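Task 17 of the worksheet. Students: predict the tertiary structure of the chain below and write it out as structure tokens. Keep your answer in the requested format; marks are given for formatting as well as content.
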Amino acid sequence: MFNLAIDSKLRGCDLVNLHVRDVTHGNQILPRAMVVQRKTQRPVQFELTEPTRSAVSAWIEKANLRPEHYLFSSRLAKSPHVSTRQYARIVHQWVAAIGLDSTVYGTHTMRRTKATLIYKRTKNLRAVQLLLGHTRLESTVRYLGIEVDDALEISEQTEI
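Model answer:
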């Protein structure tokens, strides 16, 4: 779940709603997957790195999951998959386990992590915008916490 949360950059509601078929083709874990985001109703594509593919494959095998199953099914009979609240509890446990303040980090931290790393390495706002599924570049600028003037300066330096 951790690896997939980082790689996919999905909101918690979209992550917990993933089916096995969303990330597989036959017995293979896809290197790229695409899902429609619940909030925006827009598709977003993401890469699954080799460590994530290995982890997801091991999870599917261990949990004996089939394509129609939710990737992260619930133990509760009334709920088909882990709830966003339960996902939040899991993230807080991860954060506490590594000695960080769990009040500072949450599920959205998982979504923001890879997007921030990509931006820091490439300074490519448009790429991050596409990866997050944002419709407006201004939303991506706010999301990353960078100044609009800095973003404009970077975009002016980018040659087409």
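Marker's comment: The chain has nine helices and four strands. The chain has one domain: 2-157.
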